[in-house]
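User: Reviewer 2 asked us to show a designed sequence for the structure in our supplementary figure. I'm pasting the structure tokens here. Could you produce the per-position amino acids so we can include them in the response letter?
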């Protein structure tokens, strides 16, 4: 029996619909490749210090990015150098000296372990970042900085929370308003 053109077209159409559809993964792989490159490129832009939940950092409008160096953390109870507790804050407050001896001992040990300073670093000293609560008394912070300076850690940075500054606030932050 001879089929009409319409019947042939319908049969061809039904055969095509009964086939298992094929998934085209090329465009999906392109999207994932672009996503991976995007994440790789943008993951290295931000450098974050390990945050301690017990410490509330002061706010600043500084644009300078922190460097990865020795970290001295002063929490409500402990003084921690490089992840290792070296003394209690109560001892630091009770001390009448200009320096905190347990901190100085640890810093001198770390400086000795790191080796002698290079000639160009003799003036500035070794780098250190101090992370302390914003409610910390200035006298205590001054004692910690004096201790760091006595142990050859004179390149001192203070960890702060960065504030976003708008264009109209820049003159006020710079002292012009």
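Assistant: Here is a per-position design you can include in the supplement:
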């Amino acid at each position: 029996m001879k089929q009409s053109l319409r019947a042939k077209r319908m049969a061809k159409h039904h055969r095509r619909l009964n086939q298992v559809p094929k998934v085209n993964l090329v465009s999906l792989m392109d999207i994932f490749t672009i996503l991976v490159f995007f994440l790789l490129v943008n993951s290295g832009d931000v450098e974050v210090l390990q945050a301690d939940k017990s410490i509330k950092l002061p706010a600043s409008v500084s644009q300078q990015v922190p460097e990865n160096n020795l970290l001295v953390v002063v929490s409500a109870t402990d003084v921690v150098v490089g992840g290792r507790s070296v003394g209690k804050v109560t001892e630091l407050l009770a001390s009448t000296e200009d320096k905190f001896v347990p901190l100085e001992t640890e810093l001198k040990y770390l400086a000795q372990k790191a080796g002698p300073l290079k000639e160009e670093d003799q003036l500035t000293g070794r780098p250190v970042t101090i992370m302390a609560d914003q409610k910390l008394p200035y006298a205590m912070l001054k004692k910690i900085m004096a201790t760091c300076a006595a142990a050859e850690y004179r390149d001192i940075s203070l960890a702060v929370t960065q504030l976003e500054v708008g264009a109209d606030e820049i003159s006020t932050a710079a002292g012009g308003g």
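For the response letter, you might also mention the following. The radius of gyration is 31 Å. The chain has a mean pLDDT of 78.
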